[in-house]
Amino acid sequence: MELPTESRYISVAYAARHFGVSPQTIRRAIKVGRLESVRVGRLLRLPRSVLSLMSI
Known about the structure:
The chain has 56 residues and is an alpha+beta fold. The chain has 2 helices and 3 strands.
């Protein structure tokens, strides 16, 4: 799945696929403070910089 280069944020689902985990695992990491996120309306988005992390 290719990510547009101008996109500064990624979805929880995209991050989950990237790390090979479930979306719920990403949400848990956000909740405990291991990943940063922003809320856009009802949606959670993560900065692209999280893709450079080795593990969550």
